[in-house]
Amino acid sequence: MGSFGQIFSKDTQAIFYNWKANPVQRMLDFDFLCGRSIPSVACVVQPGNPGGFQKVFFGREEVAIPVSGSVPEAVKLHPKADVFINFASFRSAYESSMEAMKQPTIRVVAVIAEGVPEADTKKLIAYARANNKILLGPATVGGVQAGAFRIGDTAGTLDNIVACKLHRPGSVGFVSKSGGMSNEMYNVLSRTTDGLYEGIAIGGDVFPGSTLSDHCLRYENIPQIKLIVVLGELGGQDEYSLVAALKEGRIKKPVVAWVSGTCAKLFKSEVQFGHAGAKSGGQLESAQAKNTALKEAGAIVPDSFEALEGAVKQTYDKLVADGILVPQPDVPAPSVPLDLEAAKKAGKVRVPTNIVSSICDDRGEEPTYNGVDMSTLIEGDYGVGDVISLLWFKRALPKYATRFIDMCVMLCADHGPCVSGAHNCIVTSRAGKDLVSCLVSGLLTIGPRFGGAIDDAARYFQDACDRGLDADEFVEDMKKKGIRVAGIGHRIKSKDNRDKRVELLQKYARKFFPSTRYLDYALTVERYTLTKAANLVLNVDGCIGALFLDLLHSSSMFSQVEIQDIVKIGYLNGLFVLARSIGLIGHALDQKRLQQPLYRHPWDEVLYTR
Amino acid sequence: MARKKIREYDSKRLLKAHILRLKGIKLPLNVAQVRADTNFVELLDANPWLKNTKLVVKPDMLFGKRGKHDLVGLKLDFAGVEAFIKARMGKVVDMDGCVGAISTFVVEPFVPHKQEYYLCIQSNRLGNDISFSEAGGVDIEENWDKVNKITLATEEAATTESLAPLLSSLPLELRSNMEAFIQACYEVFLDLDFTLMEMNPFTLDSEGKPFPLDMRGELDDTAAFKSGKKWGDLEFPLPFGRSMTAAEEYVHDLDGKTGASLKLSILNPKGRIWTMVAGGGASVIYADTVGDLGFAEELGNYAEYSGAPNTQETYAYAKTLLDVATSSADGRPRALLVGGGIANFTDVAATFKGIIQAMREKADAIKAAKMRIFVRRGGPNYQAGLALMRQLGADTGIPVEVFGPETSMTVICAKAIEYIKTSA
After folding, report:
1. Which one of A218, A350, B138, B277 has the lowest number of neighbouring Cβ atoms within 10 Å?
2. Contact A206 B2 (CB under 8 A)
């Protein structure tokens, strides 16, 4: 890798493998701080995904980053993106990295995953060496070129980036194994020097894809870098290739280096420190031996990590004094707008809500219906009528009332296959449509002519009764206005063939309701209409409508205003819709079970006319 | 998570099984393992060969030079092996300063031999080194000039040509068999994700078949997801002499169960400076710095957590660490360094939550141990994290000193030392 120099620029674009919202957003935020004109992520590869895009902020605006389903496709569409950032897991990092490295347009591959098998990494190293590619990691956070390009999460938050002056280039090249320590050192460099030019974390594995010396040699070739800072670690022998490069004069720029792990001598037996590669091994791999060797080779090696900051400062100051290094100017960073989530968390903004909901809450330990939790509903003596009373009427109605709701649901659940709703549902089911389509096609017939009369019945009966109209006055008045009397009349039932459902409801109401004033009024209307025709009976819609009025008025649980509201906005039809859904689902499933073929209406049952 | 030494028993078991699977070579190898709870009758049932051959027995504890410490039994019958083991099981030995009890033995057939060969395959960055010598055995180091070594680049095959330099001085009639054996071993090495496979020595049995007498192996445990099935029931023993305390064992288990990294090594339970540091790189530097400042003998432990452990995990981890750190209260002051660099992506406040929960629970013990907490951390959400730490101090009366990225990372080491020194 000795022939390499700068690998990133302000125009560098990456292909980001395995979508992760946070690191991609962090990269684009860094872009904005640096004043880049194009986002540093050209596209995201989501294996097997047919395409599309991911929305990310680029400064104050949102941009759509294209998504590709495979590496070759991504490379073909984005031939200028020469960096591959691999966020695949340790299980699949090898395959995807190798595939990427084999693409001619890809020059740099960064593998983030920790725990990639050594043999896999070695194959990647071999390929990279043979084909002049640069491998960063595995087990790394990546790297950053100040003011130009950032890999993933490198250098942390935006505040930190600005505090460390990473949004514009300085004059120091830095390399270490540790991602966390890189970030720490960027901070140190911002205090002691004009800041970082480029920083790479090579990763904590035994065999990192590229080594400390690989990057130091690169830094030697980057003219803007005047000072190289290295943070090594016990274990392995990578530091010795740096020693050799220094001794052979291949690195002439000043190198300030420290190898951590001097504490290993305190442990009697072998210790595995935090990084896989950081294991106390032979004498040669010890921090002490490496520090000594680096010092002998001409690196500036302090006596401790604590003294590193001073050594960097001293070396930097001397370069400045000698006129070798001209401190790079500080540039104010543009401010990136706060993310809404972060700002909300910090209490810096208030945001109006879009939706108001007053019937339930699913945010706690268990969902509640109008304040009543599931445990109470399930463990107590509650039924569907109680749930309806909580979710629709927002109160717990007395038992006789919720039982009445149950009865309405039961009685209205189905009325045979021939009524228009069921018929539509059956036809749809036989057309091979899904359950929801069948249900909906049936429900869509509910309206003024089919099942939708409960509300209207309640409205007119209430109005007439409250105004004290006699039944005949009411009926004739409606006739004059050309309005059908809702709740009256049945296709089949008649004076002598009563609707059993209506009888049952009346019986129940008379036994349990405090008052049946509206039912009684409806029956006076029926008595009058029956004089006109035998089938103008009080039907089930009319009965439910009247009895609901009785329930609302006599339960003493609703104010007059609430009752008007309930009647006005269509609560009662809701009851029919709910009930009939049960029957419609039954019809849809029945047809499917019976494997009924497509329904076609016979010609001879159609009158073809002009 | 990295290279792990395995027992000789497992090295031989794996070689035997997989050289047969991969190359159809039947090695005359037989191995049995004896632990403290091994039932000798059952062992004999499972390994009938133990009855009708002379045996070798030795400890299988990841240390060498066993012959020099009277730990090898040669040419014994089974009763002799039993007696040999019973006399040494649990015995504490000192191997070059590493002291520990012997708990595991390996038993195998005694193979009379004159010739001792040496074979070692070792992974390096660019490939694998293969070393071979006709002068193997205990004196290999004295005979190092007779060891031939080649390096096969990654993905380079072990061909007759590439192996030739190893075998150049071997008698012609032995070469092709030896070459086949080395090739087969290399294939097993690659297929099973070995990082080291050493036979020192191996010999040829009466039929001329290679027979490893002593064997060492190391596997790459990160390859468990693809090679674990081939490894079978395998343990990665601790280095010899590195027995774990209950606390270390608990954290070791915790570490194994999470995707995050949780490490704890106790150096000195009576030590008065304790560390609990975020990050693999930073944790080493904190331990270094305490040593550099001349207080190595007061350093209680090495500890590292990283990779975003969840609140439950950091809580369990911190509680375990605090238990040990406060267990030797003696009226003298103690310090705990809750340190770390500037995180790249870890939410500092979130990781502090579990630690703080543990500290609240252990507040009395912390105060009784006269322990002062020194915090230094930066990274995402660090202001909130540091505020939580200050709040902990205010609520519990535990003395807590808190620093952010504006100070150097190791500033708290000197402060901790200052504290344990001056208020002694």
Report:
1. A350
2. yes
- Residue bearing tokens 């002694």: B424
Express the helix, strand and coil content of chain A in percent, nearest 5 each: 45, 15, 45
Q: What is the mean pLDDT of residues A525-548?
A: 93
Which tokens sit at B17? Answer: 């099984």
Q: Are A41 and A68 in contact (CB under 8 A)?
A: no
H or E element, residue A606:
none
A180 close to B (CB below 8 A): yes
Complex confidence, ipTM: 0.93
Instruction: Please give the structure tokens belonging to residue A479.
Output: 């006739």
Structure tokens belonging to residue A362: 């699913």
Instruction: List Cβ<8 Å contacts ≥24 apart for B162-167.
Output: B163/B130, B166/B130, B166/B131, B166/B132, B167/B132
* Cβ atoms of residues B93 and B71 within 8 Å: yes
Give just the sign of the alpha carbon dihedral A247, A249, A251, A253: positive
Mean pLDDT of B26-43: 94
Residues of B in contact with A92 (CB under 8 A): none
Within 8 A by CB and 6+ apart from A262, the residues are A234, A287, A288, A291, A304, B288, B291, B292
Q: How many CB pairs under 8 A join A and B?
A: 198
* DSSP H helices in A380-539: 384-391, 399-412, 420-430, 435-443, 454-466, 471-481, 500-512, 517-530
Residue spans of alpha helices (H) in A255-336: 287-296, 308-321
Predicted confidence at residue A269, as pLDDT, reads 62
What kind and span of H or E run contains B331? Answer: none
Of A156, A160, A260, the CB nearest to B284: A260
Tokens for A105, please give them.
Answer: 């347009």
In chain B, what residues touch A260 (CB-CB under 8 Å)? Answer: 281, 284-285, 288
- For chain A, how big is the Rg over CA atoms in Å? 39
A469 burial class (0-12, 13-18, 19+ CB within 10 angstroms)? middle
**pLDDT score recorded for residue A2:** 46
Nearest to B288 among A155, A263, A270 (CB): A263
Tell me the three state secondary structure of residue B130: strand
| Distance (Å) of CA A274 to CA A97, B271, B302 | 25, 21, 10
Instruction: Locate A433 and state its tokens.
Output: 């449509």
Cβ atoms of B192 and B227 within 8 Å: the answer is: yes
Q: Contact, A188 vs A180, CB < 8 A?
A: no
Distance CA A92, CA A84 (A): 15
Element (H, E) at A53: strand A53-58
pLDDT at B267 over 50: yes
CB < 8 Å to B228, chain A: none
Chain A nearest-CA residue for B384:
A346
- Of B155, B164, B88, nearest to B127 by C-alpha is B155
Residues B220, A117: contact at Cβ < 8 Å? yes
Backbone angles phi, psi at B381, to 5 degrees: 65, 25
Contacts with B, A 125-154, CB within 8 Å: 125-126, 129, 141, 153-154
- CA–CA distance, A80 with A256 (Å, rounded to integer): 35
pLDDT digits (tens, 9 = 90+) for B170-213: 999 999 999 999 999 999 999 999 999 999 999 998 888 899 99
